[in-house]
């Protein structure tokens, strides 16, 4: 076989002779070089099949060094052609692993034979190298006798090192292996046992945070002498990390296939079952022996849903289909299932398999039904809730609009139900609500809808109303059912309600306005004395709009600092000496001017703003009282009204304590005025008022005589003072009834050792009459109207008498 040959010879005549000889044998001489440097450059440029290399050359690089560098870089075999055979030269030549060593002069036939054998060897080694490259193998050899390590193939890319780094041989090789895998490899190498295993590269040979690298490791020790240190070890390694990962993925997939809760069936391209997992058998009741080779559509769907998705998946450019089907088990029972079908294709798009996955969604459908029920029903009474009210009204109003019919909405609110919860407990309150819901449901028609909005509020939607009298009749029945009372264990609970009635389309033409109208009518029924019903009117709508404006304006008033405190003097009736002030809130409305508290405090109590307003009043009053004291004014009593809602708040005591600490106002100079309705629950009132007294403030009952106070309440509660309401002082001393009531209140105060103050004192006759009865303090327009803080400060400055 002929080849492409390069000649490296510094004697020109010898080089020409070699060139002619080689060409006469049919070889191609691609280059002639005279130095080692020229040889290295020419080899890289021409890449010959073989190099004839002289050892002694021009320049600083001799033939052995040039051959070594060319072989390392280009793997081109070299035949040395030299006149020298000394041992040092032979050793240097041997290090480059030459394909031959010819001593000059060389006869032509010997040259041709050597070249041909070298080219044949090159072809074999090239085939071997190609095979090594194709398999991505790393090949290595440790020669113990010679003390050298030879590495080839992909050893550098596999281990990330230069072969020269293994000059320590066996120990260096073991250091490349994961510490956990070294003992077995070392034992096999020392025992001469062939090694064929999979192991890991040492972690310090990998980049930081890199995943493990796995190798197929094959090696064997060969005895070449009497001592083990002279043995040869030859091995082959291959990076199988990707294969290992694929195997792990396959193992994981197999575990998932066996253990997943989804039923999985694998089909062939003709849709015949070839495998199922345990979950499929458990889910359907069909074992693999009974269904192997069958199409699932023959036995699985309870209602055959067709074959359209199987063959059309690849044709439609889709490889999956999913949807809900109804399946039938082997025992005939049916269940809803979510089915996923996936077409598996090879790289050319040919169909290989179908994978069918089934999930039993019975629990999901049951949960959906339960959630749907919860979404539209009240959990306590089982009646409809707000969502059902919305749907029912939309449905009935649409139907009534099409048929020119009327729809009535009844809004029921139980009277005084909060007192039942507070006295009997919420558990009893819940029982009562459930009984009431059942009773209302028993009174209405099947076409009517009963709703519990929450708390003690109920709504009844009554379609197809013919006469107002029918609405009145139903309202009377509901109220009568409530008044009948409810038997609970050993006691009977009496309860009443107030009902508002609004009609579509007369009172409102949409759902929300109709509910608002019925709500407003209910408040009208309450205002008439409760335990009654009322139809909606335009006057109610106007009142509701005004109430809404006040409610919305109050929220802005707090944010915009529109609220202010006025201070009405409290004086001694004997000499009009200033004793203290009562702080009274006013609202500086940007459009309506100064608004008194009786126009907005009731709204604040129902819309949830009273606590914020009450806290602001308490803090502002205490801060002003402290400012007066810091200004040198004498100590005086400062009275602040506290709402029943505010007093019953869980954090009231803590709020009071914090305000006193922050403002520094003396607690003993603060007096909290509460209404009689606040103390109806004796035990709760006793506890909360006791905590107030322990903080230091005094307590008085405002507007005494207008509520439902009793001697027992006053006897058991820590009350310091009662205030005679202006309703009784207004017509004194000329009205006999008011005079007797006032005498009774004064006598009661003396009996219980309570202090007295009279409100609404407007003339000297009233003052004299009250003094004669023994009432020592009063407030009213006779002495002063409520004053803004500046005028109150001026009054303090003019006052010379100590409190």
Question: How would you sum up this structure in a few lines?
Answer:
Helices cover 44% and strands 24% of the residues.
Description:
It contains 29 helices and 32 strands. It is elongated. The model has no long low-confidence stretch (mean pLDDT 84).
Task: Estimate the global geometry from the Cα principal axes.
Answer: elongated
Low-confidence parts? none
Radius of gyration: 53 Å
Number of helices: 29
Helix content: 40-55%
Overall mean pLDDT: 84
Total E-strand runs: 32
- First-last Cα distance: 134 Å
Q: Main sheet?
A: 10 strands, mixed
Structural class: alpha/beta
Strand content: 15-25%
Q: Regarding quaternary structure, how should these chains be classified? A: single chain
Features:
alpha/beta; 803 residues; elongated; 29 helices; 44% helix; 24% strand
